[in-house]
Amino acid sequence: MKDKFTRRTILGIAAIVLLFLGWQWFDRWSQDPENESQVNTAGFIAALDESSKTAAVFDSNGNEVKPPAAPAGREDREVSWGPTGAHVFISSNRETEGFNVHRWNPVNGSLRARSQGSRNQSAPSFYPDGSVESLREGLVVGGGTVQVFDPKKVRLQQILPPLDKGRATGDEGGGMVGSMSGAFAEIGSSFKEAEWGPEKKAIFAVMRRERGEVLVLNALEADAQGRTPPPIPLAAADRILLDSQPGGMLAGVVGFQWPDPAAIPEQFLKDGVPQKPYENSVLFMPSLDAPPQTLPPFPDGQFAAELALSPDGTRAAFVLARKVDDTVEKLGLLIVSLDGSAPPVPIDRGVISQPSFSPDGLRVVYIKADGEDRAIFTSSASSSSPRRVSPSGRSFRSPVFSPQTQG
């Protein structure tokens, strides 16, 4: 009788332990991004509400969806979509003094912090191929370094500048160390922005330096001798604009600077005085095997104040502007075929900013000054058909389509 009771007790304890472990596993599984990758967000637009300083989503019918309210004095700073379209990722200080990455499901409302650390972290930039693999390889800029973000494991691992072999890094990265870091230190002081290059074989990044910014190509694949190529500065300027897509890389150079003022090519020296090749320009790199192409200048002194590249790399959206005295005057939004096969398409006029293509390249979303509002607008990318999405009396920024959006 005693043995029977003992066996029952042991079995009961074992069952409780298994149930507890099973519940823990289910809890982790149910909160995993891959588990919710089938959430339907087709036609959704994520953005930041400047009034409340929180993230917002507009569904395909124009209805607004908000995440749980942030505590008083806290705010959301940046937003991005995960590549499967199941979640919006938010850089926010909702739970800590610093800005960490939070994951929000706009369909069921769940919101969770998915990174740690005291250094401010950007919203992650994912490679837009719709895969779960890419969902676990976001690029986050924090503490002046670039880190690979895995929301499933709540992990950040520094990738740029590379760490010394054998030197571990915590959630906050390790800073500029090692021989490769010396190469980066000669280019700039810290990273401002980073995006995956085609097929995730490289990272395009913008680095800050003492004066201005530098566009850098960071190849990730070793050469025939097994060595990782050093970083390559592609351009320098007062301000660098960057958009990298599977179809290539587009960069705006606003206020040309010499990448290395101590090594100016002789063809740009006249009587020993440097002569800038241009003041403002746009560079297009269709693949990692092709050198950057300098696009023809815009007429009448106009330049690209902001830009976006279509996912297939065939078209670009430019916010055209001109400088009047010391003021930049924005003129409107223009879609340009990068191979010159079609005439430019004027989309909208006015003070426009932050254009972005839909995943299929058929539509654009952007911010436009409309009265006192900074409103979200969408349009066909092949004709002028602007439509306001956001309500009156509100201002927004950083609009972007869900990766599931087609047509």
Describe this structure in words.
Helix content is 10%, strand content 41%. The protein has helices at residues 2-30, 132-135, 178-185, and strands at 45-49, 54-58, 64-65, 76-81, 88-92, 100-104, 111-113, 138-142, 145-150, 155-160, 190-196, 202-208, 213-219, 232-245, 248-257, 269-270, 273-274, 280-285, 293-294, 303-309, 315-324, 327-337, 345-349, 352-357, 363-370, 373-380, 387-388, 396-401. The chain is built from three helices and 28 strands. The protein starts with a helix and ends in a 6-residue tail after the last strand. The longest helix is centred in the first third of the chain and has 29 residues, at 2-30. It has a domain at 1-30. By secondary structure, it is mainly beta. The chain is globular, with a radius of gyration of 24 Å. The strands form seven sheets. The protein has a seven-stranded antiparallel sheet with strand order 11-12-13-14-15-18-19, with no helix packed on it. A hairpin with a 2-residue loop joins strand 14 and strand 15.
